[in-house]
Amino acid sequence: MQIIELLTPAYEAAWLPWAVQYFFLVGIATGAALLAVWGAWSRAHRPAAKALPLSMLVLAITALAAPVSLLADLHQPARFWHFYAHFTPWSWMSLGALLLPPFVALSLAMCAAWWLGRTGWMRALGAALLLSALSIVVYTGAEISVVKARPLWNNPWVPVNLALTAWLAAVGALLVASCWLPAGRDAQVRAWLARLGLGLSAALLAVACIWAATGLAFDTPSFHAAARLYADFPVWRASLWLSVLLGAAVLLLWCQPRRWAASTARTLALGLTVAAAAWGFRWALFMGVQGVPKYGAGLYVYRMPLGGDGLMGMLGVFGLCLALATLALWALERFPARATPAASAAN
User: Fold this and answer.
1) In whole numbers, what is the pLDDT of the chain averaged over residues?
2) 275 closest CA partner among 2, 24, 57
3) Tens digit of each residue's pLDDT (9 = 90 or more) over 169-211
4) How far apart are CA 118 and CA 343, in angstroms?
5) What would the DSSP string read from start to end of 89-115?
6) Which of 59, 146, 57, 61 has its CA nearest to residue 96?
C-alpha cells in the first residue's frame, strides 16, 4: 500500500471584498443612470420624470463611491496608471479602465445639468450616458464570465444576473432615497418603482428557470457544478433556500404595494432588503465561488480580515456612501435644484 500525501498551499484571494463593493455600487449606478435618462425624456407628469431627484441622488452617490472601491481592490492602488501605460485590449479589466472614467464624468454632468435646470443638456447627455452605462454592464459581466477555470463564472447567464440584480438594487436604492426626498412621497412614484421591481424580479425568476432547464437538458458545466455544491455542502444548500424564500417574499411585496408604499419604515425596509439581496448575490458569486477548489474536494476556508482589506474596508465604503448622501441632501436643501418641468413636478 502506498500513501500519497497532498499538500495544499495557501493562496491569496484573487478578488477581495472590495470587488463585491465595486460591482455592487457600479451596478446600482448603471441602473440609476438608465432611470435618469428615462426621466429626462419623459413628460413632466410621468413617474420617471417625477422620480428624477431620486435617480440623480443615487447616481451621484454610487458614481463617486464605486471607483474608490475599485482602486482599493487593485491591491496597490497607486499603480492604476499601469492600465493606461500598458494597455491590453484583449483584457476586459484593461478595457474597463477606459470605460469607467467617461461613465463617471457623464453621470456627474447629468446630475449637474439636472440641478441647473437644463433639460436640453440632460437629454443631450442622456444618449451618451445610456451607451456608457450599457458599456459598464457589458464589461463588468464579461470580466467574470470569461474566466474559463470556474464553471460557475464561465457561463452566459452571469452577466445577465449581474445586470438584473444591479438594476433591482437601483430600484431598492431609489426606495431608500424616497424616504428623505419630497419626490419620493408621491404615491405614483412608489407605485412605478413597485412595477419596476416586479418586472425585474420576474425576469430574474425566468432567467433562473431557463438556466435550470437548459442545465438539466444539456448537463451544462455551470449547472453540474452548482448541483454538486447543493448536494455536498449544507452552507450552499441553506443559501439557495434562503434566496428562494427571500425572493418569494419580495415578489409578493412588489405585487401588493399598498402594504408598504404608505409607510416610510416599510418602504425603507423593502429598499434595504432588495439592495442587501443584490449585495449577497455578489458576495456568493465572488467570495463564495473562490472558496470552491478548481480541482479536489471540500471547500477552501476563507477568513475575512478585519482591516482595510476586509470588514473595515466594506464598512468604510458604506460610510462613504452615507457621507455622500448626507452632503447631497444638505446641498439640495441649502441650494435647491433650478426649476424645470420635471423637477418642479417632482418637488
Assistant:
1) 90
2) 24
3) 999 999 999 999 999 889 999 999 999 999 999 999 999 999 9
4) 11
5) TT-HHHHHHHHHHHHHHHHHHHHHHHH
6) 146
Annotate 315-345 with b (16+ C-beta within 10 A) or e (fewer). Answer: ebbeebbeebbeebeeebeeeebeebebbeb
205-236 residue pLDDT tens = 999 999 999 999 998 999 999 999 999 889 99
Query: In the block, which residue shows the cell 452552507?
Result: 235
Q: Write out the three cell numbers for 259.
A: 402594504
Instruction: Confirm if 162 and 144 have CB atoms less than 8 A apart.
Output: yes
Q: Check residue 233 and give left, alpha or beta (phi > 0: left; psi -120 to 50: alpha).
A: beta
Work out the angle between the directed axes of helices 157-178 and 264-283 (0-180°, nearest 10): 150
Q: What is the pLDDT of residues 26-76, one digit of tens each?
A: 999 999 999 999 999 999 999 999 999 999 999 999 999 999 999 887 767
Is 172 within 8 Å of 32 (Cβ atoms)?
A: no
pLDDT band at 9 (very low <50, low <70, confident <90, very high): low
CB-side neighbour CA atoms (13 Å) of 16: 20
